[in-house]
Structure formats: C-alpha cells, structure tokens
Amino acid sequence: MSFFKKIFSSEKKETLDKGLEKSKTTFFTKLNKAVAGKSKVDEDVLDNLEEILVSSDVGVNTTLKIIGRIEERVSKDKYLGTSELNQILREEIAGLLSEVDSGNATEFTVPKDKKPYVIMVVGVNGVGKTTTIGKLASQFKKQGLNVVLGAADTFRAAAIDQLQIWADRVDVPMVRQNFGSDPASVAFDSLKSGVTQNADVVIIDTAGRLHNKVNLMNELTKIKRVMQKVLPDAPHDVLLVLDGSTGQNAFEQAKHFTAATEVTSLAVTKLDGTAKGGVVIGISDQFKIPVRYIGVGEGIDDLQVFNKFEFVDSFFK
C-alpha cells in the first residue's frame, strides 16, 4: 500500500530494522511453520496465526481484532493465498494502529505555543525511565531547544544520581533536592527554574512505586496540582515508559498507571533485546494511548519517534 513509502532516513530505518530483528525473526519462523504446505488462508492457518500473535505478545484482544479483519478479507475475496499473508498482516495491523492518533511524526518536536512544554515521566523502576529522559533531553537539545530536568523521584538516592549523570552528559541543567524531599516541591522548583531560564522543555522524573496504587495516585495528583501553581495547564504530556522486553507485564503496568493518572503518551523501551516487539501493537490498540517513542538500542540516538508505518514495515520486512 502507498503509505509504506519510506519516511525515515536510511540510518534511522536501519537502526529500527536491526532493533526489531529478534521479534521479526521469531515471528516469521513461527509463521512459516504455520503455512507450510498450505496454499490458501483457511481456518487452520488462521488458528495458527492467532496462536502466533498471542505468543508474540500482541495480546488476546488485539489478536482477535486482527484475525477478524483477515477473516473479513477472506470472506470478501473468497480466496487468499498464504503467499499474500505477510502483506495482509502489514495492511491490517497498520490500519489498526491508525485508529490511535499517534501521528506520523518522524522527528522529536514539542508544540511551540507551550513554553515551557512540560513532560511528566512516569513508570516503574527498571523500565529505562531515566535513560529515556536523558535521550529525550539530548534529542531536544540537538534541535537547539533549552531543556531543564527535574529529579522528582526523591525516594531513591540512586535515581537522583542517575539523572544527574544524564544531565551532565547532555549538558543541561537539573533541579534536585535532597533524598527524601517532597517530590511535588522538586517539580515546583523545576518549573520555576524553567520559566526563569526561558526553557523550551521541562522534563520531570517521578517515582515508580506500584505496591500501593492509592499512594501512587495521590502522589502524582499532588505533583500535577503543585506544577499548575506555576503553569495552569501543566503537565502538557504525561509520558508512561514501559519495558517492551517484559511482554504481558508491560500491559499490567499500563493498567496500573492509566488507573493512577491520565497518561497521554507512551514510550516502549528495550525492543532491541527481545522477541516481544508485538507488545507495541497490543498496547497501542488496547489503551488507545499513542506510542510516541520506542527504544531500539543502547546508543544515545537509539530512542526513536514511533512512526506506525515504519514500525510495521520493519516488523514485516
């Protein structure tokens, strides 16, 4: 289909292809076995495909939608050869992802009518939250934007230190307080600092504890309320970071955080080290929240803007 034309630069596309290699190889190994000796897409092929999609962490509900779409095409066209299955999957999954308005951006951008643009980053410890913040800061700075970081995960001294390392590496200012300080106070100071320094972007890190959802909800609500004393419409984006390598566990984390606060975008990390890349498709579909960024490598430039067409093209290449 025409929307599969190349959008990314060849270097970025190569990184994406490489990052999804494990997921793609595992998927097609299973798919080739499923269609071996079959010339047309029949009930057996669809049953096998359903099992493959679920085992690729696409998720049961999303898998059933995809199978339903393919069944409609089989019914309408009367005959579909197994040789066409790859293209059909590309088209139907791209169509499914298009129902979630993640846009077609290929570059890191922030709205120019919000200054500073405030991103509050949430997610459990260990998902790559701090690394994602550092890489985001790097990308924005490369565009000539002034960035301020806020270390509002004050429950772990290591979290503050890790963010400081990234701030130093990227050479952007960071607002911090002592370990155990009130996270909302740090967020307040970060926004005040951002306004004073004429920052374009302020990125706020938050604690990622899930053991008590009530406390998590109260804490995030308080941070947002205190930030609004400085900027009434802050935060402009609540970015949930999920570890793609955890598969179905990423779904559970998404459930917890979407219940605790209004998540407006997603970043799915660590896709290069896993065969669970299908989780991006399922999470995007199930939560109707746009996947904005994906992590496809360890390099500072290996956080990419998620473009659904490029993603599907790489996955089914």
UniProtKB/TrEMBL annotation:
Record keywords: Cell membrane, Cytoplasm, GTP-binding, Hydrolase, Membrane, Nucleotide-binding, Receptor
Positions of the SRP54-type proteins GTP-binding domain: 290-303
Main location: membrane
Catalytic activity: GTP + H2O = GDP + phosphate + H(+)
Pfam families: SRP54, SRP54_N
Annotated compartments: Cell membrane; Cytoplasm
EC numbers, comma separated: 3.6.5.4
Gene Ontology CC: cytoplasm; plasma membrane
Annotated InterPro entries: AAA+_ATPase, P-loop_NTPase, Signal_recog_particl_SRP54_hlx, SR_rcpt_FtsY, SRP/SRP_N, SRP54_GTPase_dom, SRP54_N_sf
Domain of life of the organism encoding this protein: Bacteria
UniProt keyword annotation of Transmembrane present: no
Gene Ontology terms, MF aspect: GTP binding; GTPase activity; signal recognition particle binding
Gene3D superfamilies: P-loop containing nucleotide triphosphate hydrolases, Signal recognition particle SRP54, nucleotide-binding domain
PROSITE patterns, per the entry: SRP54 (PS00300)
Topology within the bilayer: Peripheral membrane protein
Keyword Cell membrane: yes
Positions with a binding annotation for GTP: 123-130, 205-209, 269-272
Family: Belongs to the GTP-binding SRP family. FtsY subfamily.
Matching PANTHER family: SIGNAL RECOGNITION PARTICLE RECEPTOR SUBUNIT ALPHA (PTHR43134:SF1)
Subunit annotation: Part of the signal recognition particle protein translocation system, which is composed of SRP and FtsY.
Protein's recorded name: Signal recognition particle receptor FtsY
Gene label: ftsY
